[in-house]
Amino acid sequence: MDNIQSVKSQLRLKEWARQIAECQNSTMTVKAWCEAHGINPKTYYYRLRRVRKNTLENMPAIAGNMP
Known about the structure:
- The chain is mainly alpha-helical.
- Helices cover about 75% and strands about 0% of the residues.
- The protein has helices spanning about 1-25, 30-35, 40-55.
- It is globular, with a radius of gyration of 15 Å.
């Protein structure tokens, strides 16, 4: 069961990352893009935080490699 939840979570994060990239690559403001796609701006920023956090957690530690 835990594996299913993990897969669902990863799929959700991928979809959110796709939406965030689409918004950031558009010429619209975040507010306008969210209105056009039926997403509350607060939801957009929540998803942005979750995607960023997940990305940082999955990055290899590079602090030890710095001179």
